[in-house]
Please model this.
Amino acid sequence: MLILGPSPARFDRTEPQLSPERAQVLEAIQRRESPTSVRDVSEELTLHGNTARKHLEGLVGRGLIVAVAGVATGKGRPARLYQALPTSTEPDSRVREYVGLATALARHIAMTSDDPRRDAIAAGETWGEELASRRLPDGTAGGATLIALLDSLGFAPEADVSGKSISLHRCPLLDAVRAEPDVICAVHLGIARGVLKARGLDPEPVSLEPFSEVGACRIHLA
Model:
C-alpha cells in the first residue's frame, strides 16, 4: 500500500553535531534502501568525489552508516558501498528546540483561536523571518535560503528542476501533524512565507500541499 506524505526526520543524536554538509550526506544515504556508492552520493549532492568519500568515511567512523562490499565486476577488490543503519525517528538537538516549540504552539492555537489556520500561518511567518535573519547569511537568494533553512530543521527538502516547488521528504513533527494537521501544516506554510518575506519576496503565492504524494509534501513557490 502506498503511503502519502513524508517520513519522520532522522538525525544523529550524538555530540558533537554533524556539519550541515555531512548531515546532508547522511540524509542522502538514509533515503536509499540499498547500498550506495561514493559516485552516486557525489552526483546527487554535487560534491567532489573525494569530499563525498571523506564524509561517508566520517559517518562510518561515527557508527551512523556501514560500509559493505559491492558485487565484483572484474579484477581487484569490489567497490566499497555505504548503507544507513536503523536509527531513531526522533529529531536530534538540531531540531529539538523547534519540535517542542512548534508542538506547544500548535496546541495553544488549536485551543484558543477562532481561526486556527490563519493564526498558525501568521505565527509561522514571524518565525520564518526570525530564523532567516538569525541562522542564514544575508545575500542568499530566497529559494536557496528556504531550502537551507528547511534542511536545517530536518525536512530533507528537494527543489524540482524548475525551481518552482520544493518536496519535503521528512517531517520532524509527524506525530504532532497527525494530532493537529491543519495547525502544524499551516505553521510550516507560514515559515516558508516568512523566509521569502525576509528576503524581500512576495510570500502570498506560496502554498503547501500536505501529504500530496508518495513520500513527501510539496511547497509551491509560485
Remarks:
- Strands lie at 7-8, 65-69, 80-84, 157-159, 165-168, 170-171, 207-213, 216-220.
